[in-house]
Amino acid sequence: xxxxxxxxxxxxxxxxxxxxxxxxxxxxxxxxxxxxxxxxxxxxxxxxxxxxxxxxxxxxxxxxxxxxxxxxxxxxxxxxxxxxxxxxxxxxxxxxxxxxxxxxxxxxxxxxxxxxxxxxxxxxxxxxxxxxxxxxxxxxxxxxxxxxxxxxxxxxxxxxxxxxxxxxxxxxxxxxxxxxxxxxxxxxxxxxxxxxxxxxxxxxxxxxxxxxxxxxxxxxxxxxxxxxxxxxxxxxxxxxxxxxxxxxxxxxxxxxxxxx
Amino acid sequence: xxxxxxxxxxxxxxxxxxxxxxxxxxxxxxxxxxxxxxxxxxxxxxxxxxxxxxxxxxxxxxxxxxxxxxxxxxxxxxxxxxxxxxxxxxxxxxxxxxxxxxxxxxxxxxxxxxxxxxxxxxxxxxxxxxxxxxxxxxxxxxxxxxxxxxxxxxxxxxxxxxxxxxxxxxxxxxxxxxxxxxxxxxxxxxxxxxxxxxxxxxxxxxxxxxxxxxxxxxxxxxxxxxxxxxxxxxxxxxxxxxxxxxxxxxxxxxxxxxx
Lengths: 260, 259
Description:
The structure holds two protein chains of two kinds.
Chain A: E1 5-9, H1 14-26, E2 31-34, H2 45-48, E3 58-61, E4 64-67, H3 69-79, H4 90-124, H5 129-137, H6 142-153, H7 158-181, H8 192-201, H9 204-207, H10 218-228, H11 231-237, H12 243-246
Parallel strand pairs in A: 1-2
Antiparallel strand pairs in A: 1-3, 3-4
Helix pairs in contact in A: 1-3, 1-8, 1-11, 4-7, 4-8, 7-10
Chain B: E1 3-7, H1 12-24, E2 29-32, H2 49-52, E3 61-64, E4 67-69, H3 72-82, H4 93-128, H5 132-139, H6 145-156, H7 161-181, H8 194-203, H9 218-229, H10 231-237
Parallel strand pairs in B: 1-2
Antiparallel strand pairs in B: 1-3, 3-4
């Protein structure tokens, strides 16, 4: 595909999935450049030459680099034609931004902490210890180095994990309450907030099955299914290469092994 | 559109939103509240779920036709959306991306540390002097448990050494970031924008607490004076009700749990 937009991304999940699904919903053709997060491709010289921060996702448009997934989403919405993914009303627009931040900064870190602790961390630790050490040393941002060290070696205390579990339950409760009041997360139309939140929430019926299900959270389930029904979601999740992306198949009623 | 702004002393997020409101030219009823005594939760402000769980912590609340808007950067975006052309945000999508990424660094990286240092220096003594039961009654209505815990930690003056060091390092980093950015321009985005207000409101109070971060940075010093001289900022500063308005901090965004 020839396009002046290139997206550097990992799986359709959490941060990478946000600009992926936004671009697909908007109908913007883009060159997809898969970066293997678990092989630490994002900290290797080839990629650092493109994005010196060594974070994914990143997007280039006409030679200009952008990072920070949520800020990229707003850029895609404003820079390209296609269906509107931001409401027209100024208060509704504020609410879209508020919910994206809630997922990015309050709920997201708790979900990723448990995800790394249970799912990704143990898989990464099967690697050669020296290789892992070298991979951490290559991380350019000091705060990311600290976070990756914790994630790779599973250095989360019981208190931290308990706090993350507590927050996930509250996040589920607040999201359920909100979706009981309106059809979509931030306003009466599908928006960037739904795209953002879906990327962190689509696997909750799996990883939090006793707290997020048809009986306890019917509104979250209705909302997740409505987003899954969108053709853009199928296209986006087909770009996944690992079992992680297959978790979306719970909405087809399929059994899924990897819960995180 | 009927708007009421519940704001604290003109420092931190309250300064950002007051000045942004004046830049927008929109009219709002101004209602000063004592954020340092948790008045936001005292029944005066019509809080909604979003204001109760605001990532910014104890910031101002702009009530628009009955709905409570929180988080200073997003309130600034709202004012720009409601008064297009007021100049709070650039109009080019790439410049807007750049501004949002800049502001995000300020709120996620600088603000938690700056708020922690400011609270410890200026808010802890007043809270510590309160009778236990009086303090308990102030924070009892706070729904978000992590915010309530930040109040308790603030009253106790609890800031571990590693977090204090990291917070001071953030102030140094922010000061350098601004000094570097201004090498070819007068304002963060070229033209004046919300990015100047958000950065100023967190950085300026740090002059008293981390003075070393400001040494040998002439462009930063000139920019601080330039922002302060704007009529909107002057008018915001004139809303002060105490002798040291810059010290009016209350628990802010939490320090990143991932380190």
